[in-house]
Design brief:
By secondary structure, this protein is α/β, with parallel strands linked by helices. The protein is built from 17 helices and 26 strands. Helix 5 packs parallel to helix 8, helix 6 packs across helix 8 and helix 14 packs across helix 17. It is globular. Bound molecules: alpha-D-galactopyranose (GLA) (2 copies). One alpha-D-galactopyranose binds next to loops.
């Protein structure tokens, strides 16, 4: 899909989109005028309308009411505010689920998910699809000549609630998907290792979604079901997008992905990124010490999913959400700082959920741009400041994030396969990935995040952290890459199985063994609160590889020392580096502590003499356009101010104080330099 970015109706190209979800249907009309006044005051230039408005747009089957929506679209247009128009299909109205209860999803036990919340529909239901696509078509026909509509927003957070459905519709869809993947039952039985526990399938109709059963459910079935579930929603997305593209070829189409820490059971965003006209993401901050680093990582991942094209932050929050066990609020300056983290990583649009905080309903205590307290509030004031900041930053629109010296491979297949269990429950794919991403940040570098099937050969260094599933194509590419001079870094838990989750035998990690020159005989889980000490003073936790053999030309960076609880590990190599062709291949067989991981990255991978970085050094991210470079600098410390020299013109700064020729950056501080 060719990249296309929403255009504003006055044809100006130099604006960062700024706004949020707007739900005027929840408010009497007299509030709308106040909304618009306050949006204008904050310099809002786009809002998302209609996400959950199906019941108001089609109050009865086949009766469509656009009057109310037209009225607000017109008011917004007159006020110079564009619309990201949702297709309104995210939640079916009650009349529809009442008439067609067969569209309601089922859980693993075959129990029905009832209406009363949201998104209660089966991704594979033909009945649902017929109704939803009819609505999509009506929306497209109705708004096709409306200049206010800058983008289409398909459904909402596809997969947020209804990704896994175990109904008979899902069973039929799963069989069809498997037929396309495997062609015949013999191949399927081989992929699923049918002889194991007598699971051989002799008729396609015997296949069911992985409904609840006794322990040890087939991991390849589970993995395929996750792939299938992601693909079904993508298929659904494409069905809506096809209608929109036909009716309104000039309006780009998107949907909001959910790349963030708490995203569970996700869709394969790297695959989806190839089908969106422009990529959008929803991100909710982690209210703990990981906040900034996790946000940088998620935003860098979205940039990778967008293949470095500008992307849209479709939702984030001004302060606390309502859905964590304890909802901690944002600190002063963090609305702006967080928004600029996304902008630094390629977002040309900053939006919030939601414009006006609800008075009632399940999200009434979720923060908003205009809180319950109203116009005279710290939040609204900071939103107005953000509006000004984004206007000052308009020069950067269309620039691209500078390529990093290192690409880190992120892989949904590996994540999904790991969710099916391992030797230790202490292992969590995203947490391990974050650990290594953070080690790179601590070394002073923002890494690019790339899908394993995308191009990573043009980076100086490529890291495969815990990338469990690797096919022969990727392992061949890795070999060529290192041969040609690349630096390959592989960690424990990577390259173990093929795409059917069949282990490469003969010693782990089969997909990379010959390049790395290491042979792992067994994994050794390390218990909670235990560590192993290494010969160079480092330590490891959670997982240690029993590396029983290394190639003669392998340099050992660290051995396990003689105090390890697991006696067989004592004295064995655990971190290695091997010259290979014109490049080198490095292996880390344990989860190094945060500090040691940063040392390893800085010294051994990047070849620096000292650790530059750490969380008291500024974090710098650059966006480039032609010969112009815009540098975003963040203070990573949550408690201490840092000082940086004034290097170029300050385009914008927040939570900073000028002191002679230096800038004092408070916690939450951010500076943007321009040429
Ligand atoms: C039981 C079963 C075996 C096997 C082992 C694994 O003993 O009888 O089939 O599953 O558990 O520990
Ligand atoms: C998601 C949804 C929104 C809202 C927010 C609350 O991102 O898309 O409708 O529920 O969560 O955080």
């Amino acid at each position: 899909m060719a990249y296309r970015w929403p255009k504003f109706f006055d044809n100006r190209k130099d604006r960062i989109w700024f706004g949020g979800d707007y739900n005027p249907e929840q408010w009497p009309e007299h509030v709308w005028d106040e909304d618009i006044r306050l949006m204008q005051k904050a310099k809002v230039n786009i809002v998302t309308l209609g996400v959950f408005a199906w019941a108001l747009i089609e109050p009865e089957e086949g009766i469509f009411c656009f009057d109310w929506l037209d009225k607000i679209v017109d008011k917004l247009y007159q006020a110079g505010i564009a619309v990201d128009m949702a297709t309104a299909t995210a939640t079916p109205p009650r009349w529809l689920t009442d008439k067609h209860p067969e569209i309601l999803p089922q859980n693993e036990r075959g129990e029905l998910i009832w209406p009363g919340g949201r998104q209660q529909w089966r991704p594979t239901s033909k009945v649902f699809r017929d109704y939803a696509l009819r609505l999509t078509k009506k929306m497209a026909e109705h708004y096709k000549n409306n200049p206010a509509v800058a983008a289409w927003h398909v459904s909402n957070e596809l997969g947020c609630h209804n990704i896994f459905d175990y109904s008979d519709d899902a069973a039929a869809g799963f069989r069809k998907w498997l037929k396309e993947r495997y062609g015949n039952l013999e191949t399927l039985n081989r992929a699923w290792n049918g002889p194991f526990w007598s699971q051989i399938v002799t008729d396609w109709n015997q296949i069911i979604p992985p409904r609840e059963c006794y322990a040890g459910i087939n991991p390849t079935t589970l993995l395929d079901f996750k792939r299938f579930s992601s693909d079904m929603l993508l298929d659904y997305y494409r069905a809506e997008a096809d209608i929109l593209h036909t009716q309104t070829p000039n309006i780009p189409v998107t949907t909001n992905l959910m790349v963030m820490e708490n995203q569970v059971n996700p869709v394969d965003c790297f695959k989806w990124g190839g089908y969106l006209d422009f990529v959008s993401n929803d991100h909710y901050y982690l209210p703990d010490e990981r906040q900034l680093d996790e946000m940088i990582m998620s935003a860098a991942m979205v940039s990778g999913i967008a293949r470095k094209n500008p992307w849209c932050l479709m939702e984030n929050s001004t302060s606390s959400v309502n859905w964590r066990p304890v909802n901690l609020r944002k600190q002063p300056g963090e609305i702006i700082r967080d928004a600029l983290v996304h902008v630094a990583n390629g977002a040309d649009a900053v939006n919030f959920f939601q414009w006006r905080q609800s008075e009632a309903g399940a999200e009434k205590f979720h923060s908003a741009m205009l809180p319950h307290a109203g116009e005279k509030s710290k939040i609204y004031k900071e939103i107005c400041e953000l509006g000004n900041a984004l206007e000052k930053l308009k020069k950067i629109v269309g620039s691209r994030v500078e390529q990093s010296e290192i690409a880190v491979i992120y892989d949904y297949d590996s994540w999904w396969a790991y969710e099916n269990g391992l030797l230790t429950k202490l292992f969590d794919y995203r947490a391990e990935f974050f650990h290594w991403y953070r080690a790179i940040l601590d070394a002073g570098v923002t890494a690019d995040i790339v899908g394993k099937n995308d191009c990573w050969e043009n980076y100086k260094t490529v890291m495969f952290p815990v990338t469990y599933l690797v096919d022969s194509d990727v392992s061949k590419r890795a070999e060529r890459y290192v041969n040609g001079g690349g630096c390959l870094v592989v960690t424990y838990g990577a390259g173990i199985s093929d795409p059917c989750d069949h282990v490469y035998t003969g010693g782990y990690p089969g997909a990379f063994r010959d390049i790395l020159g290491v042979r792992v005989e067994e994994f050794s889980a390390i218990d909670k609160d235990h560590t192993i000490s290494l010969s160079n003073g480092w330590s490891g936790s959670i997982w240690a590889d029993d590396i029983s053999e290394i190639a003669g030309d392998c340099e050992v960076i660290a051995y396990v020392d003689d105090t390890a609880d697991d006696r067989a590990l004592r004295g064995q190599p655990i971190v290695t580096s091997r010259p290979y062709g014109a490049g080198k291949a490095m292996y880390v067989g344990t989860k190094l502590s945060r500090k040691d991981a940063a040392q390893f990255i800085s010294k051994n991978v990047f070849g620096r003499t000292a650790l530059c970085g750490g969380d008291e050094s500024p974090m710098r991210i650059r966006r480039i356009q032609g010969d112009k470079s815009y540098e975003f600098v963040f203070n990573r410390s949550r408690s201490k101010a840092i000082e940086i020299p004034v290097e170029q013109t300050i385009l914008y700064g927040s939570n900073i104080v000028m002191k002679d020729k230096t800038i004092v950056m408070e916690p939450s501080g951010v500076v943007v330099f321009a040429p």
